[in-house]
Amino acid sequence: MIEPFADRRWAEALAMAFRWHSGQTRKSTGLPYVIHCVEVAANLERLGFDEPVVIAGLLHDILEDTAIPPDTISERFGREVLEIVQALTEKKRTESGQKRPWIDRKRDHIRHLRHSGRNVRGVALADQRQNLESVLDDGKLGEPGFWAAFNASPGDYLEYHRRRLAACRGDEPGIRELTAAVAVSIERIAENLARTGLKVAAEFGDSDWT
């Protein structure tokens, strides 16, 4: 069990997360992005995941959202932390530098999660849980402009999260609790959307996800 701030590596990872995500904010609230990372890590710690997993939760978006090189993570926090972070990093651009379509990124991410171990799936689920809870807390589900920030319709957003959850399910300690919480949040969003009357039709079908 990690004792936050008493543990040197945890304290260093927390400081680096604040530094590396400096200036970044959440899509809809404008709150500092690092709050999301801290909540993901705290969730993993409460469920008994090992220190490298908790630190990876804190740093899970570093490679995707900053220019920090992978070697910096492995040198400071070890190879295991880097491997978890890399496993959770979406490939956002093609080799030529063009932005990849949303569906391609999400489909590939789900495919990778299906074959991942407990630690990677744990961080993925903790991240998913916190993202869904943030959407619920924002209270803007019925506003079309809210969904523009996600690059997906409400229907595709829900389908993505259901498929991502299915890819991460398992009976391991911590995974059971996280999958149950994520499932509840997905259905709460679906129920709240239904009450708003906002069109939730999905653009993509089964053939796009497989």
Layout: helices, strands, pairs:
Elements: H1 8-20, H2 34-46, H3 51-58, H4 62-65, H5 70-77, H6 79-87, H7 102-114, H8 118-138, H9 144-148, H10 154-168, H11 175-196, H12 206-209
The tally of strands reads 0
Helix share bin: 55-70%
User: The biggest beta sheet, please?
Assistant: none
**What is the count of distinct domains?**
2
Can you write the helix and strand succession as a string? HHHHHHHHHHHH
The residue ranges in which pLDDT falls below 50 over 5 or more consecutive positions are none
End-to-end distance, in Å? 39 Å
Number of helices: 12
| Mean of pLDDT | 92
Task: Describe the overall structure.
The protein has 210 residues and is mainly α. It has two domains: 1-89, Orthogonal Bundle (Hypothetical protein af1432), CATH 1.10.3210; 90-210, no CATH class. The protein is built from twelve helices and no strands. The protein has helices at residues 8-20, 34-46, 51-58, 62-65, 70-77, 79-87, 102-114, 118-138, 144-148, 154-168, 175-196, 206-209. The radius of gyration is 17 Å and the shape is globular. It starts with 7 loop residues before the first helix and ends with a helix. The model has no long low-confidence stretch (mean pLDDT 92).
